[in-house]
Amino acid sequence: MQIDICDPRRRFGTDVPKLALQNPLLKFAILAFASRDWLRVNGEEDLESDKYSSQALQLLIPILDRPVELLDETVLAAIVLLRLYEETIDVDTGTHLLGSARLLNSPSAYADRGGLSEAASWIALRQQLYLSTTYFQPVSMDLDYFARSYSFKDSSPESFTNRIILLCCRVLTYSHNTQGRFGVEDWTQLRNEVLLWYDSITWPVKPNILYYFIDGVSGSLPNLWVPMPVHAIAYQHFYFALLLLAMYEPRNWIPGKEALLARRKVDDQIQQNLAMIAALAISNPEVITASLTAHHILYAYWSSMH
């Protein structure tokens, strides 16, 4: 399942359907998302997803009125599924992310609990990153909870991918907190962490850091096929982190001739990293999440350059 692409245990494909047999909220959340996804895959008229979504919301709203400490992992999983449904409708307001942010920012944070709680937390963070990217909003989740996650103890490709996604969120959060004016020391630390992430990878296929032209032809994209779907997501977020760091490099904003010349190179760096993100999606067409990731990033940053 694409929703489980960053979870080595694939809990949304295994645990969640079993839990839904005894949990009406999960059942209707699954049906809402599945009905909408059926429309996307088969092109058939969708007559049921709105009904299932409404039934799920009727159950969810009173549940969210309870103290956060009384809510369990199934509530967060249902919110994640409803958010996936919400992403496919014509007007995406990010409503369900408010519920997941409330849970993940609570003292009983889910991101370091393991199991379905932790898996759902990482999906919610990825959803928050896409919304923040599209609408230039701050990431409204406490990122410190994620740093205590099992993903920082595990060496699986999925865990490595979660780490680079968290780094993207940290860069975005810092940019919003400082109105894009990074301190040199903070920017350098984040850049070093991103490059260290890349250097620590031992996967068999590892694309070059920098974008390059094929046979010297400007505008052509490299073939970046990767053996595992999660590799595509990992590298897309790596290049997205490089894109953000290029945009906010503090030395480019110090008044003077050198900074003026450097700023002219920023657009080229952004285009290079966008090209790598797009190439990963095009080279791995079976990875639906890679296509969606490229769509969100290209929509936000390519359109802003033209």
UniProtKB/TrEMBL annotation:
Signal peptide: none annotated. It is found in: Nucleus. GO terms for molecular function: DNA-binding transcription factor activity; transcription cis-regulatory region binding. The keyword Transferase does not apply. GO terms for cellular component: nucleus. Transmembrane segments: none annotated. Its main location: nucleus. It comes from the Eukaryota. The keyword Signal does not apply. Pfam families: Fungal_trans_2 (PF11951). InterPro entries: Fun_TF. This is Zn(II)2Cys6 transcription factor. GO terms for biological process: positive regulation of transcription by RNA polymerase II. Keywords: Nucleus.
